[in-house]
Amino acid sequence: MKEYQNYIHGKWTNSKSRKTFDSLNPATEKSLGAFQLSTKEDVHEAIRAAEKAQPKWSGTPAPKRAEYLFEISRLLKKNKEKLAESMTEEMGKVLKETRGDVQEAIDVFEYMAGEGRRLFGHTTPSELRHKLAFTQRRPIGVVGVITPWNFPLAIPSWKIAPALVCGNAIVFKPSSDTPRTATQLVQIIEEAGIPEGVINMVTGGAQEVGKEIITHEKIRGISFTGSRDTGKWITQNAGIKKIGLELGGKNAIIVMEDADLDNAVEGIIWGAFGTTGQRCTACSRIIVHKNIAKALEEKLVHATKQLRLGNGLEKRTDVGPLINKAAQEKTFMYAQIGRREGRLVCGGKKAEMEGYFFEPTIFKNVKPNARIAQEEIFGPVLSMITVKDLNEAIRVCNGIEYGLSSSIYTQNIQRAMLAIEQIEAGITYVNSSTIGAEVHLPFGGIKQTGNGTREAGIEGIHEFTETKTVYIDYSGRLQKAQGID
Length: 485
Ligand code: UN1
Description:
Layout: E1 6-8, E2 11-13, E3 20-24, E4 31-36, H1 40-59, H2 62-78, H3 80-91, H4 95-115, E5 123-125, E6 131-139, E7 142-146, H5 154-165, E8 169-173, H6 179-191, E9 199-201, H7 206-215, E10 221-225, H8 228-237, E11 242-246, E12 251-255, H9 261-273, E13 283-289, H10 293-306, H11 325-341, E14 343-346, E15 361-364, E16 381-387, H12 390-398, E17 406-409, H13 413-422, E18 429-430, H14 457-463, E19 465-473
Parallel strand pairs: 7-8, 7-10, 8-9, 10-11, 12-13, 12-17, 13-16, 15-16, 17-18
Antiparallel strand pairs: 1-2, 3-4, 5-6, 6-19, 14-15
Helix pairs in contact: 1-7, 2-4, 2-6, 3-4, 4-5, 9-10
Active site: 246
Subunit structure: Homotetramer.
Family: Belongs to the aldehyde dehydrogenase family.
């Protein structure tokens, strides 16, 4: 079986532990290769390499740094099909979605490469004569990038692309469920000619590798996407550094009585069962007006029953497996809870086939405060909640701890505008599903979804820079601000 290595200071190296772990194909449960089960010492080495490389990298003009990003984007494009197939093998989602994942990575490298010729600060008048005031965006230094498996190329790219163009050096720890895709990304970055030490990858567990990156004082910034519990741990243990967190959601689609139901059903199916429900933007709650609840349920159940489960590499497959055994068990546990909390209308069990499959599941008559309507399941489980009007819909929509994505289906402009105004979420869609964020717009959420940062778009640049404020006094004498003579 193929053994893969860490990437430190421009070299592929074994961990000091001499131990490895396997990455499994969730559709077949077969191993795809062995990866380094790294130690704290490996992390230290990666940090030293990054520290060494960072000053020269940040001294390289940003438009020159951007050239590497354009090249990475080009190489991703060239290898798109191969990367997509390999990703489906490693994490299960269907080929059209892994193609989308690669495309998102291509897009973000391209967008961030363009930032090499912007990285705008702002200029503003000084309160004093002959004095110039402006800001610049400066790199943070060495940053830690810790990523999940559900978008194994796109999410690392959301972080790595801006980190690079802004002049940071990186220590990257990918999810242990998708180290092969991460390795392929780093290989492409290497092929694009990035100087040694600017990006370093260390694979392995959260306890040894993740914790060390998060707590190490030489790491000046952390960007993390993953569970809320880990996010909380990071805020309590990282010490004083810049932190960006994206911690999931319990996203709802509101369907009003005037909605185009067929359009809504398509959006719900895509949002709830695309990526087998394993997106932090996935739709896991339907909040439906009582007058159309029955009609929506019928259409939804009909469409859900058409979905074909299978290996994501096969053309006929609509829904792939869950990522691993633990995810399958967790989804099953919630389906059991759901049986007590609502009425099961379809699915509810593991599929009888090899691999970590679970049937797309819908519960109706769910109370807004039921566990299945409150907790992030990260699987293909959808709860339907019936409401009497828009006010109640928005109240239910907001009655959760998370605040990532949201959606309303309505033909009525007033309802749409009120939803935009009153829904507590980082993202609101109108007449579209909860998923499908584009790379040139900010991505992230409020409440327990995050800590105020956004990824992608211009705010992705803010995540990976510090602001330097500059005053230049050319009056030739000491001038004091605040009117002091
Ligand atoms: C995630 O689920 O962690 O908007 C990210 C979307 C994708 C990104 C999802 N573009 O669903």
